[in-house]
Design a protein that fits this description.
Elements: E1 2-7, H1 14-26, E2 34-43, E3 52-60, E4 65-71, H2 74-94
Helix pairs in contact: 1-2
Length: about 100
């Protein structure tokens, strides 16, 4: 599975890149037909500490899945988005 990571107006470090790749690849044990994923990381211009946004789109056979989460860190936002996608995968399998 191919993981595309884009960051808006900043560069991500290698550690964050590896963390996101690891989390996304764990989703493949829930759904075998994941073709690729697109991850967009961006900062929201608000004074609140929860200004890191992670948007993840999974391209799977059939329908694509999408989740957007906001948190204090990119790691936390990624965890929340991956968990939301895992629930979406389970719902689509039940159908």
């Amino acid at each position: 599975m191919k993981v595309n990571i884009n960051s808006v107006h900043f560069k991500i470090d290698k550690k964050l890149d590896e963390y996101i790749n690891e989390k996304i690849k764990k989703l493949s044990k829930f759904h075998q037909e994941i073709i690729s994923s697109d991850v967009i990381l961006k900062l929201e211009n608000t004074p609140t500490p929860e200004n890191k946004i992670a948007e993840i789109k999974l391209v799977i056979s059939g329908n694509d899945l999408f989740a957007t989460k906001k948190a204090k860190t990119f790691e936390e936002a990624t965890d929340l988005a991956v968990e939301a996608l895992r629930r979406q995968i389970e719902k689509t399998k039940e159908k």
